[in-house]
Request: fold
Amino acid sequence: MKKYDAIVIGAGHNGLTNAAYLAKAGLDVAVLERNSYIGGATVTRELHAGWKYTNCSYVCSLLRPEIARDLELPRHGLQVVPYGGGVTFKRDGDYYGNYYDHNRQYREMARHSKRDANAYERYTADVMKQTRLIRPFLLKRPPDPTSLKLRDLRDLADFAGSFMEMGEQGLADTLKFWTKSVGDYLCEYFETDVIKAHLGGSGIIGTALGVFSPGTAYVLLHHYMGDVDGNVGSWGVARGGMGAVSGALAASFQAFGGEIICDADVDRIIVKGGKAIGVALKNGDEYHADVVVSNLDPKRTFLDVMDAQDLPADVVKKAENFKIRGSSGKLNIALDGLPTFQGLDKNSPLMLGDMHFSDSLERIERAYDDWKDGTWSKDPYIDMLIPTQTDPSMAPPGKHMMTVFVQYAPPKINGGEWTDADKDGFEKSVIDQIARHSPDFKDLILHCETRTPREIEAEVGLTEGNIFQGELTFDQLLFNRPFPGYAQYRGPVQGMYMCGSGTHPGGGVMAAPGANAAREILHDLRKPNTVPGGYADD
Amino acid sequence: MTDNYDVVLVGAGHNGLVCATYLAKAGKKVLVLEANATPGGCAATREFSPGYSVSSCAQWLNQLHPAVTRDLALESHGLQWAARELASISLDLDGQHLTQRGDHVEGGNVTAADSAAFREFHAKTTKFAKLLVKAFEARAPKLVESNLTDRLTLIKLGLGLKMLGRDDMSDLMRIILINMYDVMEENFDSAQLKGLLSLDSLLGSHMGPRTPSTVFGYLYRRVGEVFGHTGHAQVKGGMGALGQAMAASAQAAGVDIRLSSAVASIDVDAGRVTGVTLADGQQIAAAIVVSNADPITTFERLVGLRNLETDTARRVSQIRCTGGTAKLHLALNGLPRFTGLDDRQLGQRLVIAPDMNYIERAFNAVKYKEYSTAPALDISIPTVHDAALAPAGGHVLSAIVQFAPYEPEGGWDAHRETFTQLIVDCIASYAPGIKQQIIASELLTPADLERDYGMTRGHWHHGELGMDQVLMMRPFPGATQYNAAFDGLYLCGAGAHPGGGVMGLAGRNAAQEIIKRGAAA
Reply:
């Protein structure tokens, strides 16, 4: 049997990133993937003949540019095409549009409220300030505040230093931003319901919180801190779907000599003498290695592929208490043509962006109340995109593909499993909401793939269907992610590491957790570091 | 009465009186101006129906700082206890009530495992509350430009945090910003216990058990136990007697108190305060003006936003301060009977919060300016311990009601009757027969509380106790060390650090700050 230097469990984007950096450092690395295809939640799948569904994650912005450059992802086929636009349709027949052009954007806002249009610059500048603060910490491991090690103290001082630099008022604004709800935060700037609703959705995507739950303003940041080609805050579609991201990462990894083994369903991590020595597959095969890295979420890692008797008791308890509640679902739809929407020209640049139908924060908050009550939102918050307008390669000529991200869908329905009837009900509430604003929409549907947390968990392996591998609440951020004492990518067993979105800095197709974990592994192996730690900003 | 005052203090609420007394003891000549006819602010007793009196705002005393009780000699100025160390009983429809006293819980559906877990949880949260006390007993340090005093506080806090030990320290840092709901789920099975504790975390707030910040709210409440209040206490004669005792103490220290004297404005000139103008037009000059009013009233109404710098004005208008709590008072012609409760138990603190989802649903309503159709209640029957509050044989029931909106659609007049009925129905489901005993009732909505006690939008804490508005962020950056916006202008109420509840620390800390600065100047 062949022994590797390192085995990575799961060929999601973080697993591949981690593996690529280890291979780049000269290690002999294998990535084991349960599915017959790679990518995890970063995939493109042809589920209806001729249509490529980007059926989990669907837009790109957070991917760290340092990593994309360093691993030469463009050379390996990744092309991110920025898209502009975006619109929220109102129930009264009007809409609020988001134009790429600055002046046009001002006029559109002023059409709803001159005061809001004037506040927008201040809002953008303030959010960008928070973005600039957080970006340098994405490609760093979080310091352990309870540790007295030199490296931690130094990192902690760095961290504190960059906060102190902001001055008293700036720091106060930051603390408020981190602890406020996105709803309250937006109310500080804007008065118009539809504008607040358009901006507020970003604070709750993938999160089991409402727009008025404190802490959601920070989640907003997870949608602003990315960039496309250095343009901070903008989003793009990966040409060919999100599978292009994982495809490029895999190609880069293989170029460094790495090996990807699909259909390899890991049963457990083998621990001997307090040290991880390899993995055993469900089919009985074993792969041995000095280092085992889990790209799985913390629950699957510690409660599923690891044995409780190999773990300290506190880790088992912490994993059990880890919050990874699913809150979202997805519809991927093949369309016979481009649908028409109320009051909007088909050639409007607004159509290119994210479309929504929740025209007030109250409607989004009520959608959350349904989730709390253990059911899907009857009037859901939808983040919808027709990427084929930007990248026609994803559907046959003249046809379109639509991706509809839906908030909220609970992991269980009233405490029980999702049934097919529930799934149909969920699908109907989404389709009806879109159809209310688009008369020809229903007739254009050729195929619809509906994914509730049940499907997301079954296919991608994300526990409870949580897209971030664990909620982005403060008890699970920075030095608390995934849990206190284990936030520096090292597991509780020697030779075992974590590299998924369940670790700092969290979810989104960022690839930072994978890279950060590789840096720690190489540090422990006393190998030269291959991971960019710096920060190449605008 | 002289008109040459060193300090004019606006509002004779408990913090105002505490602040005034400390200042007078330090040799300042202090005048307290109060709009109402009685001193005490929310520490008030009122006859709401002929012969029937009740603590008309705050009803329990469980957080008053011992130094305040001692320094103001409150007991020698008339403060008497009707009952102390009362237990909390969470009511159950079938009479399976749960009793919590200190770290002990019993009854209801509590298992041995739960009661052991609660002991552990209680011990741990007591440690956390002790750490908070260190921060509460001094002014909050400034965020950046720290001086010696602030550094000492920070060092004390830092050491305290380290002294918790690695596990507890990281646990505190993990849970401090999050919600009670998740922490309860981690620790307990009993729905009743989880309901009771999470209600404690949000009384007087505009939050549900799932709202992040409620763990802080719980620790905030637990501070009372660190101060030595092992359970809830009831003041003889109602909370108004506490207000009277504080006023007596203030007067004994030389403070002048003018009642029924509403302040119309705090006057400023060239960056400093010059005094106040009363509603009747009279002007009183003073180099120091201390406001016991909430920060929004102080800056929007009394100082006037137009007198503030833009940035300060913006911060004032951004303070989150919307009340969600109402108060119901019932005059009863006899002692009510609650299913499964004996007479002794009737004198304890009774809580209707059967589970966390119940409270969360009650909270949902108020988010949309509606009232809860199944509200959570914190009930006191003060006449069990203090018969003088009602005519012979009569009783009073007082309930804190979560949640009621500040401005329901159509105004409160359209809803007052229905909501009162609904709360009575809710109580009657635990106390069948109570409806026949009701002689009179009174509902105080957040709007009423604003009118009677001057607290903006009826918020008990003069501003939400959210993580964005506590400690070095309270009430807003730039005003966190009691002095704000103008030389000589200070805040001393619940809107200032550490916050609301009948604690007295905001008043005490403010006085210390004023005395200190006076010495420096």
The CA atoms of residues 88 and 96 of chain A lie 5 Å apart. The two ends of chain A are 48 Å apart (CA to CA). The interface with chain B takes residues 145-146, 164, 166-169, 171-173, 175-176, 179-180, 184, 188, 209, 212-215, 314, 321, 323, 362, 365-366, 369, 372-373, 473-475, 479-480, 483-485 of chain A (CB under 8 Å).
